[in-house]
Design a protein that fits this description.
162 residues; alpha+beta; binds flavin mononucleotide
């Protein structure tokens, strides 16, 4: 049963500021997916590690376990419409990358043309402390398509947390 949450704690957690990223994944059968992630942070300089939280009951979690890699695509504030498309669950809308131009990176993960910068990570560890899995990836590659002003949750008045 869900523990009763303290209202103040819920509100504080909702107020925490986050970026908004497009994480790209590739499964064993060559299936691609992309999802919107705000729970993402660097967690080591040496080696350079990023951690992302991926909802355990999602298509994306299956794919990250299969492909053992992910890309992190930085999207400009002007491309917020892309975020609105990619936030939809793959199980409901099917292949979200069908109409989104991308290339396969060196890890196999999709890299979006619209991203002004990206990194690719190889999965090093996965932990399952709660309803999201903590996926820790080592940054093995990265590139720029230009410059940009990274999209934040607050730009869309979106919240993920609480
Ligand atoms: C503001 C915002 C932030 C989100 N952050 C995350 C996140 O950090 N991790 C996650 O698993 N889902 C996050 N989501 C939800 C996923 O983007 C959404 O569930 C998506 O449908 C999952 O993709 P999939 O169903 O195609 O696997 C977020 C949604 C919003 C609106």
């Amino acid at each position: 049963m869900k523990k009763q949450r303290n209202r103040t704690v819920h509100e504080i957690l909702r107020q925490m500021p986050y970026g908004l990223y497009v994480v790209g994944l590739r499964g064993n059968d060559g299936d691609f997916n992309a999802l919107i992630v705000s729970w993402l942070t660097q967690c080591s300089f040496d080696p350079p590690l990023l951690m992302i939280a991926v909802r355990k009951e999602s298509r994306s979690y299956d794919l990250v376990k299969q492909g053992k890699a992910f890309s992190v695509n930085l999207i400009d504030k002007r491309d917020r419409r892309l975020a609105r498309e990619l936030v939809k669950p793959a199980d409901r809308v099917g292949n979200k990358l069908k109409k989104v131009t991308h290339v396969e990176g060196s890890t196999g993960a999709p890299i979006l043309h619209k991203a002004f910068a990206y990194v690719e990570c190889k999965v090093r560890e996965i932990h399952e402390p709660g309803d999201h899995a903590i996926v820790i990836g080592e940054v093995v590659n990265g590139g720029k398509h230009g410059t940009g002003d990274p999209l934040m949750c607050s730009d869309l008045r979106w919240h993920y947390g609480g």
